[in-house]
Each structure stands twice: as structure tokens, then as C-alpha cells.
Amino acid sequence: QVQLVESGGGLVQAGGSLRLTCAASGRTYTTYAAGWFRQAPGKEREFVAAVRWGGGNTYYADSVKGRFTISRDNAKNTVYLQMNDLRPEDTAVYYCATTKSAVVSTARMYDYWGQGTQVTVSS
């Protein structure tokens, strides 16, 4: 079992920044990658970014490339999502998740999920 707790969401104006934090505990040694997904009202959950747990390789959705940065601190079992130049279309509940699979952009491949944190970007 892996437990995930997200924090750092909030309300920000367009062009602003937020940093999300995902604290992991439990059997993280089985993790291949950690990812961030988001879900806006009436929309499907979509991939945002992922990072290899051991090697640090990163992956991004096209919509956030150049604006968001994912990173991890293995000593703290923590994953971060730095979000810059936020836009109203980034408004969603953001979820942290972990997977044992190398298919990191597909939500159904993830085994454990956090409870989510709301990010709201005003125009």
C-alpha cells in the first residue's frame, strides 16, 4: 500500500504560480513513477506530468510543457509540481498518483491516488 497526501492548491490569478506537494508513505519502493493528473468539472481526468521514481526522467502533457515542472525528493518521499504562468483552463482538482507501470500517461495504470487538491485560476 502507498498513501498519498496532496497540498498546495488554492486560488490564483492568471499568470500566477502555485506549487503542489505530494507526500508519499508506505511501500514506495515498488513505485515506478509518480504522476499528477487533473480533473475539471464535467471533464475526464487528464494526465499532467510524471516523474520516474528512481531515475528522474520526466514526462509532460503538451498543454503544460514549458509552464509546469515536476520533481521529486526521494529522501523525503515527496513529489512536487511547480506551476507557472497559470491559465483559467488549468482550473481543476489535481491528483497525485503512483504506478508500477512504465505507461505513465494513462490514469488506469496508476495504483494509488491521493484525495486531490483544488486549483482555481481566475482571469
Number of helices in the DSSP assignment: 0
> Could you tell me the strand content as a percent range?
over 45%
Low-confidence stretches: none
Rg from alpha-carbon coordinates? 13 Å
Decide which structural class fits the backbone: mainly beta
The count of β-strands is 11
Reading the helices and strands in chain order gives: EEEEEEEEEEE
Query: What helical percentage do the residues reach?
Result: under 10%
- Tell me which oligomeric state these chains represent: single chain
- What would the principal axes of the Cα set say about the shape? globular
Mean pLDDT: 95
Largest sheet: 7 strands, mixed
How far apart are the first and last residues' alpha carbons, in Å? 40 Å
Brief summary:
This protein is mainly β and 123 residues long.
How are the SSEs placed, and which strands pair?
Elements: E1 2-7, E2 10-13, E3 18-26, E4 33-39, E5 46-52, E6 58-60, E7 68-73, E8 78-83, E9 92-99, E10 112-113, E11 117-122
Parallel strand pairs: 2-11
Antiparallel strand pairs: 1-3, 3-8, 4-5, 4-9, 5-6, 7-8, 9-10, 9-11
Describe it.
The chain is mainly β and 123 residues long. 0% of the residues lie in helices and 52% in strands. It contains no helices and eleven strands. Strands 2, 4, 5, 6, 9, 10 and 11 form a seven-stranded mixed β-sheet that branches. Strands 1-3-8-7 form a four-stranded antiparallel β-sheet, with no helix packed on it. It starts with a strand and ends with a strand.
